[in-house]
Structures are given as structure tokens and as C-alpha cells.
Write a structure and sequence with these properties.
This protein is mainly alpha-helical. Helix content is 66%, strand content 6%. The longest helix has 40 residues.
Length: 280
């Protein structure tokens, strides 16, 4: 079932966005350039926020739980604000590009409007964000491992795919609204984009602090797909996801070595009555 899960989640997460890309972007070279540049701007914001997060975590005491919670909140806020700052810088860059295109145009008109640029730039932000949110999950979906092997929900991959699809469309919407606010100087539109981005990204981190009500076991939460933080090392991976009215727990065992004896030993251990979740 790993291959159907991989392709199914891939099509759910990226199918609608790739349809938009195919029918509205790829036919125009200028739109392709704007999309790739937008994806690059989001990637730079991710690099800087990940660097700050890495330094903050390394410089802090891992045993100080209140401090770690504060760092998580700081990471969410910093990442969102940095993404929106780069969105504003990208708007300024595209404004200059439009002025240059008007100067070079024979009829005095730009071949692409700022509204079209806003849509394509937002789609570029969303596609790159979605790619970084799902790439590791899709790699794990190919196995080895079994979703729900400990009686947990088997809907983790499906929920993550729908979340990624929503985040791609949200970034597209945010890009259109943000650029329109900059163009018309309606600062409340820009503030609305930043506020909703913070709410979506912060919902996961707030849920992390609440204990699970699931009788099958405890559950935490991942940061939102809008925030990409350094992943845990390879080995036994346990990830939890909690959103308002949605709560899923996922456990996945993966091995660095394809040693069959190690795999069989792990399976025998899981089959023993009363066996607990152990790292391999």
C-alpha cells in the first residue's frame, strides 16, 4: 500500500496547484520567471529563519521546557514575519520590473500586470512551501514502515496532503491580497495577511502545549506547514499533528540499514504482547 499512498497524497497535495501551473503559468515565459523568482524568495526566507532557529536551539538548554516552548513560539513568529518581509521585498522588485517593461515596450504597456504577478508570485511561494512541507513525508510514505502499526490513526499522510494543498492556496491568496494592499496603499489588507498567516501557523504550536484527550495515548503537535524547522535525525520517528477539531497521531519506524535480520527482530518485538514503542 505504500506506493498508492505516495501517489495519492502527492496528487492531493500538488494536483490542483499543478493544474493552475499548467493552464495559467507555463504558457507565458514572463509568468514562469516570476513564479521561479517567487519560489526563490520564499526559499531564502526559509534559509534565514532555519538558521536563526538552529542557533537559538543550540544556544539554549534543551532541558528547560518553558524556554523550549518560548523558542517554538519565537520560531513561528519570526518565520512568518520573515516570509511576509520577503513578500514585500518581492513586490518592490516586481514594481521596478514593471516600470522597466513599460519603458522597453513599444506601446507603453507592460506585457504582464501587477495583478497577474501577484497571483503567480503567491503560487510560487505556495508551491515551494508545499514542497518543503511534504517531501519528507512522501519519502517516508514509500516505506519501510506501517502507518498505524500501534493502533494509531492511519490518516496522517492524508491529512498532511490536504493541509499542504490548503497552504498552497493560502499562499496564493495571501500574495494577491498583499500585492493589492501595497498597490492601493490599503495597509489593513497587508495587516490581514500577516495576521491570518500568524493564526494559521500558530495554531499548531498552541495545540502542542495541550495534552491529548485521545484514550489511545498522548499527542502533541507539529508546527504548521507554513513553518519548516530542522527535522529529527533518522531512526525511529514519532510525529504528532493536532489542529482544531482534527487530531491525529502517527508513528513510523524506519531503518538506515536494509539488514533483514534487524527488520525481522523489530517485527518480532512489535508482535510480542504488551510490547512498547522502542527506538531502533
Amino acid at each position: 500500500m505504500t506506493l498508492p499512498v505516495f501517489f495519492g497524497c502527492s496528487f492531493i497535495a500538488f494536483g490542483p496547484a499543478l493544474g493552475l501551473l499548467l493552464f495559467t503559468v507555463l504558457r507565458d515565459p514572463l509568468r514562469v520567471i516570476v513564479l521561479v523568482a517567487g519560489a526563490f524568495f520564499w526559499l531564502v526566507s526559509l534559509l534565514l529563519s532555519s538558521l536563526v532557529w538552529f542557533i537559538a536551539v543550540k544556544a539554549s538548554d534543551p532541558g528547560d521546557e518553558p524556554l523550549q516552548k518560548g523558542l517554538l513560539i519565537f520560531g513561528v513568529l519570526f518565520s512568518v514575519l520573515l516570509q511576509e518581509a520577503f513578500r514585500f521585498l518581492y513586490y518592490k522588485l516586481l514594481r521596478k520590473a514593471v516600470e522597466g517593461l513599460v519603458t522597453l515596450s513599444e506601446d507603453g504597456c507592460s506585457p504582464i500586470s501587477i495583478q497577474q504577478m501577484a497571483y503567480v508570485a503567491g503560487l510560487g511561494f505556495g508551491l515551494m512551501s508545499g514542497a518543503f512541507s511534504m517531501i519528507n513525508l512522501l519519502a517516508d510514505a514509500l516505506g519501510p514502515g506501517t502507518v498505524g502499526i500501534h493502533g494509531d490513526s492511519q490518516l496522517y499522510f492524508l491529512t498532511s496532503a490536504f493541509m499542504t494543498m490548503v497552504m498552497i492556496f493560502l499562499h496564493t491568496f495571501w500574495g494577491i491580497l498583499f500585492f493589492h494592499g501595497c498597490e492601493t496603499q490599503h495597509w489593513w489588507e497587508m495587516a490581514a495577511v500577516i495576521l491570518t498567516h500568524l493564526i494559521v501557523s500558530g495554531s499548531g504550536s498552541r495545540a502542542r502545549q495541550a495534552p491529548s484527550q485521545d484514550p489511545e495515548g498522548p499527542s502533541g503537535a507539529l508546527p504548521s506547514a507554513a513553518l519548516c524547522l530542522p527535522c529529527p535525525p533518522s531512526g525511529a520517528v514519532s510525529w504528532d499533528l493536532q489542529f482544531p477539531s482534527l487530531q491525529y497521531h502517527f508513528s513510523l519506524l524506519e531503518w538506515e540499514s536494509p539488514d533483514q535480520s534487524l527488520l525481522e527482530a523489530g517485527v518480532r518485538g512489535l508482535q510480542q504482547p504488551g510490547s512498547s514503542h522502542q527506538n531502533v
